[in-house]
TrEMBL record:
The gene is purD. GO terms for molecular function: ligase activity. Gene3D superfamilies: 3.40.50.20, ATP-grasp fold, A domain (3.30.1490.20), ATP-grasp fold, B domain (3.30.470.20), Phosphoribosylglycinamide synthetase, C-terminal domain (3.90.600.10). It comes from Williamsia serinedens. Pfam families: GARS_A (PF01071), GARS_C (PF02843), GARS_N (PF02844). Belongs to the GARS family. Pathway: Purine metabolism; IMP biosynthesis via de novo pathway; N(1)-(5-phospho-D-ribosyl)glycinamide from 5-phospho-alpha-D-ribose 1-diphosphate: step 2/2. This is Phosphoribosylamine--glycine ligase. Keywords: ATP-binding, Ligase, Nucleotide-binding, Purine biosynthesis. Its EC number is 6.3.4.13. Its cofactor is Mn(2+); Mg(2+). InterPro entries: ATP-grasp, ATP_grasp_subdomain_1, PreATP-grasp_dom_sf, PRibGlycinamid_synth_ATP-grasp, PRibGlycinamide_synth, PRibGlycinamide_synth_C-dom, PRibGlycinamide_synth_C_sf, PRibGlycinamide_synth_CS. It is an enzyme of class 6 (ligase). Residues 107-307 form the ATP-grasp domain.
Length: 418
């Protein structure tokens, strides 16, 4: 099978690595890719927000399957264009991608499906902001009602900080979503979804704040681990039964069935799981850890989802043990990152590229905020952490930073469900 992956991050590098391990996949392409994907796939410098350009590339290389990684092309309808061209595609239609692209749509689907989530209000008029803030908090949760790559979210007990973020969004013309704060540890559960059929992957936990101890601003994700030793074994099935399947059924009945990867971000509280957000694609950096433990052929699973045969797939098989991803970020991330710095030590097992490119002189340089995603695998969480941090220690990138506590709270038994 010839597979084309769309995207350029650590998630896409992880998808490509997973696909290389599938004997049914014999030719790999990526658009646009990064400096790390070159060694396992052919990189194509294509504008992935352009449906015409992606369809033309898929035709030119004769792709049997296209896997769309990021949310932006999905929300713009790239998967629709590929399907209309008769190409098997992993990723939802633009109508179904609204589950991530419009928080208001997601809330409406969840209300109709009876799925627990935070109470929310949309504010689109600055004159209504203060009264709305008074109906929430503390803690305030302020989101951009659109795509913001995690960085559009401010969670703060400081009303002035919450207000300032909301005011900035409104000034930029973005409606603001205020939400009640959900208590309890967070879980990312990724599910392959094909209409009303659902196959869960391993549960993972992201670390969204930039600094150790969950300090500092939100990011796209600074690290992750899987599985979750503190999560009761029956919880994954409960999330599938109470959250993912009802949402999938509701979307099908609205005429926008979901096909692809539905990412449920949940808080596990005293009353069970409640949805923090849905995403319409694999999460980053959880995917790098989750796929490191996958034993089933990845291409077969993605192809079964894309071609409406997920019900025939059966449960996925996983390696015993744990996996940890540590993100190495550029100086000043999540602010405007410093780029163009030479990276050394990144050409080793477990080091996945995200914001990297090849410079004119052939050296590998940083080109984005999250530069590398470094993965360790081991028989337990301690061993996986040790391997990931050993690998991080071998990387040189001027000004870079990473969290030193990925998976640590879980390892030390400090995560409890209220
Ligand atoms: N892990 C956060 C995200 O993928 O949005």
């Amino acid at each position: 099978m010839r597979v084309l992956v769309i995207g350029s991050g650590g998630r896409e590098h992880a998808l490509l690595l997973g696909l290389t391990a599938d004997p049914g996949v014999d030719d790999l392409h990526v658009a646009p890719g990064n400096a790390g994907t070159r060694s396992i796939a052919t990189n194509h410098p294509v504008d992935v927000a352009s449906s015409d350009a992606v369809v033309a590339l898929a035709r030119e290389i004769g792709a049997d399957l296209v896997v769309v990684g990021p949310e932006v092309p999905l929300v713009l309808g790239v998967a629709d264009a590929l399907r209309e061209a008769g190409i098997a595609t992993f990723g939802p239609s633009a109508a179904a991608a609204r589950i991530e692209g419009s928080k208001a749509f997601a809330k409406d689907v969840m209300a109709a499906a009876g799925v627990r989530t935070a109470h929310s209000e949309i504010v689109d008029n600055p004159a209504h902001l203060d009264a709305a803030l008074d109906r929430f908090g503390p803690t305030w949760v302020v989101k951009d009602d659109g795509l913001a790559a995690g960085k559009g979210v401010v969670v703060s007990a400081d009303r002035a900080a919450a207000r300032a973020h909301a005011a900035d969004l409104l000034e930029a013309g973005h409606p603001v979503l205020l939400e009640s704060f959900l208590d309890g540890p967070e879980v990312s559960l990724f599910c392959l979804v094909d209409g009303t059929d659902v196959v869960p992957l391993l549960p993972a936990q992201d670390h969204k704040r930039v600094g150790d101890g969950d300090q500092g601003p939100n990011t796209g994700g600074m690290g992750a681990y899987t599985p979750l030793p503190w999560l009761p074994e029956a919880m994954v099935q409960r999330i599938v039964d109470d959250v993912v399947e009802p949402v999938a059924r509701e979307m099908s009945s609205r005429g926008c069935p979901f096909s692809g990867l539905l990412y449920a971000g949940l808080a596990i509280g005293a009353d069970g799981p409640a949805v923090v957000e849905f995403n319409c694609r694999f999460g980053d950096p959880e995917t790098q850890a989750v796929l490191a433990l996958l034993e089933s052929p990845l291409g077969e699973a993605l192809d079964a989802t894309a071609t409406g045969r997920l019900a025939e797939l059966g449960p996925l098989r996983w390696r015993e043990g744990s996996a940890v991803t540590v993100v190495v970020a550029a100086e000043n991330y999540p602010g405007t990152p410093r780029t163009g710095d030479t990276i050394t030590g990144a050409d080793v097992d477990g080091v996945l590229h995200a914001g990297t490119k090849v410079d004119a002189d052939g050296s590998v340089v940083s080109s984005g905020g999250r530069v590398l995603a470094v993965v360790g695998v081991g028989d337990d969480l301690a061993a996986a952490r040790a391997q990931a941090y050993d690998r991080v220690a071998g990387i040189r990138l001027a000004g870079s930073h990473h969290r030193t506590d990925i998976g640590l709270a879980a390892l030390e038994g400090r995560i409890t469900i209220p």
